[in-house]
């Protein structure tokens, strides 16, 4: 707080107000006990002023309210950042320093590049002064290109390190999430299904996706992250189970109605039906009994999966300052938790003030 907003403490003399309010003036008369006052000359009674502390706990709470109020006003009104460089820690240090020096921002403050720099700048832009400049230094394909040019109240310069093969137009490859699969089958057919997933993993390794390929995690019951349920039992699945996709083995497919749409890929015939529990897939290849069928099933399933929207990498460019509405001050940090603290202190002050009157 002291390093972020170096001028807010100049208003601390306002703490003298509750200190003054809580000092009470009382007058006490002094008189001498005499038998009679008939023959004494007339004189004004002498008075003594005694300063006395009252409600010290209430005084402390009110002082804290003033401190929190001053800090909240400083956090929401006073911009304090100057020229700033958002530096990617994984970038080449020599190249990064060259870009910083070329932009004339060697004196600027350096911050670690956030996970989403453009959104982070939009949320914290009010922290920079009107004359401040911002420089983003990042590796190639670390920043996703936005759908439209962003608008900032400050000049923002982006410098990205070009790749060795000059493939700036290649999309950023996202890391595939872990896929959760529920495998419900009989002990006799468990080995076939396990062998199928082992074949899927070997295909990922052969295609060079050992680091970024799909990771399968097995679960006993479906959850929010479950993407596939394999049901290879004669009995029906529980009605409360749901997932985007179901694979019904031959033990259950014989009892399902022969309806729905059919798809033929890589020599395999697949049939699917949309239900309230998810899309049910049936095929004679469930489960595959040899490596060739497993490979064909893998390729077919990859084609049926929806393609992920992959953004293009952001290239080096510059955005000039534009007249945009300032960010909401109440949503800034640490203004949010300061506002909560101010509200809590105000409630405590009201309780103590009410208790004092009663």
From TrEMBL:
Q: What keywords appear on the UniProt entry?
A: Membrane, Transmembrane, Transmembrane helix
Source species, domain of life: Bacteria
- Please report the stretch or stretches of sequence annotated as the Aerotolerance regulator N-terminal domain: 4-74
Question: Is the Transmembrane keyword given for this protein?
Answer: yes
Q: Where are the transmembrane segments?
A: 6-22, 57-80
Q: Which InterPro entries did the record assign?
A: Aerotolerance_reg_N (IPR024163)
Q: What is this protein called?
A: Aerotolerance regulator N-terminal domain-containing protein
């Amino acid at each position: 707080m002291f390093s972020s907003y170096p001028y807010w403490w100049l208003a601390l003399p306002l703490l003298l107000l509750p200190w003054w309010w809580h000092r009470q003036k009382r007058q006490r008369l002094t008189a001498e006990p005499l038998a009679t006052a008939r023959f004494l000359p007339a004189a004004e009674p002498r008075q003594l002023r005694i300063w006395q502390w009252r409600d010290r706990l209430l005084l402390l709470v009110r002082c804290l309210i003033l401190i929190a109020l001053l800090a909240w006003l400083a956090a929401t009104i006073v911009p304090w950042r100057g020229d700033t460089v958002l530096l990617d820690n994984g970038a080449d240090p020599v190249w990064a320093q060259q870009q910083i020096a070329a932009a004339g921002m060697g004196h600027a403050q350096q911050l670690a590049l956030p996970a989403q720099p453009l959104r982070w700048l939009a949320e914290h832009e009010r922290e920079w002064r009107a004359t401040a400049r911002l420089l983003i230094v990042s590796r190639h394909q670390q920043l996703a290109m936005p759908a439209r040019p962003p608008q900032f109240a400050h000049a923002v310069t982006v410098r990205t390190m070009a790749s060795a093969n000059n493939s700036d137009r290649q999309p950023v490859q996202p890391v595939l999430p872990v896929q959760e699969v529920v495998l419900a089958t009989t002990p006799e057919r468990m080995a076939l299904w396990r062998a199928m997933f082992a074949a899927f993993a070997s295909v990922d390794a052969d295609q060079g996706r050992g680091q970024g390929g799909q990771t399968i995690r097995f679960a006993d019951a479906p959850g929010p992250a479950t993407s596939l349920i394999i049901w290879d039992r004669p009995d029906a699945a529980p009605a409360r189970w749901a997932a985007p996709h179901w694979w019904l083995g031959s033990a259950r497919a014989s009892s399902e109605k022969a309806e729905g749409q059919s798809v033929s890929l890589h020599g395999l015939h697949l049939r699917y039906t949309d239900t309230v529990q998810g899309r049910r897939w049936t095929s004679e290849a469930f489960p595959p009994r040899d490596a060739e069928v497993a490979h064909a099933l893998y390729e077919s399933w990859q084609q049926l999966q929806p393609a992920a929207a992959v953004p293009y990498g952001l290239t080096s460019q510059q955005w000039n300052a534009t007249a945009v509405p300032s960010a909401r001050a109440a949503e800034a940090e640490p203004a949010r938790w300061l506002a909560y603290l101010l509200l809590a202190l105000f409630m405590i002050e009201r309780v103590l003030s009410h208790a004092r009157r009663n």
